[in-house]
Amino acid sequence: MKVLVKLGGALLDSADSRDDLAAQIAAIRARGTEIAVVHGGGKQMTRYLAERGIESRFVNGLRVTTPEAIDAVLKVFAGSVNHELVASLNRAGARAVGISGIDALLVEAEQMDPALGAVGRVVRSDAALLDLLAGAGYVPVVACVAGDRSGRVYNVNADQMAAACAAAFGAERLVFLTDVEGVLDGARKLRPDLTAGESERLIAQGIATGGMQAKLNAAVSALRSGVDQVRIAPGAAANVLERILAEDGIGTRLTLSEVHAA
Question: Parallel, antiparallel, or unpaired for β 2-7 and 34-39?
Fold first, then answer.
């Protein structure tokens, strides 16, 4: 089985949380599952900029990425956050390799909107590097930075990065580990299962907004690109990855259409 796990930056801000998730990922890799990781780092990025007197500005949830900010993106996402996670995975016994979407044109992007600066929209993904690393027993750890064939660098939403990588990698499972319990309905109750169509209706009805809207959009994109199942689950829950792979019902399971028992 191939699995891609996307880790939100909030889960990586604590050494204890980072080490716990690294141990879970290493255990899954040790059993023969090919696993790749995509991570964010927005919280760390905001803090880094604030320490340097640079205000973070957002438009529709996207960080306006000035030349100063893109320099910070490389230093934080592809630098400290990425390598701290790689170190935790190595300590847990995995052979982790830190990369970004720029490497080997893993993820190519184009400018989304000039008003946003160097914010990129994913246009294609070539998972040859992920296949090479994961197939040889390594755990690729991908920072959410992409490029283009002209050498430009883009800040890319980590959920969209994860969806693109999962589809290109041929992952059967895409897991979004976040700081909420899953997808909530209009009554603020957890939805254990959702189809792609139901996910889009939650967005259209204004129930899923902000970060959850971004995750659902990415999940639907992944499902329609061949990923069998997406799970949105609380990263702080005990043994969360083991439970997801065992189908124990944690979080929200998303599929292209309704799954019927045999």
Answer: parallel
6 is a catalytic site residue:
yes
42 catalytic per annotation = yes
In the residue annotation, 235 being an active-site residue is answered as no
When pLDDT is averaged across residues 258-262 and rounded to a whole number, the result is 50
Active-site residue, from 20, 120, 147, 215: 215
Side by side, which strands form the sheet with 173-178?
Answer: 96-100, 139-143, 34-39, 2-7, 173-178, 229-234, 252-255, 193-195
The residue from 2, 8, 9, 235 that is catalytic is 9
pTM beyond 0.70, yes or no: yes
Cα–Cα distance for residue pair 159/218, rounded to 1 Å: 6
Counting every residue written for the chain, the total comes to: 262
123, 133 Cβ separation under 8 angstroms: no
2-255 has CATH 3.30.1330.120 classification: no
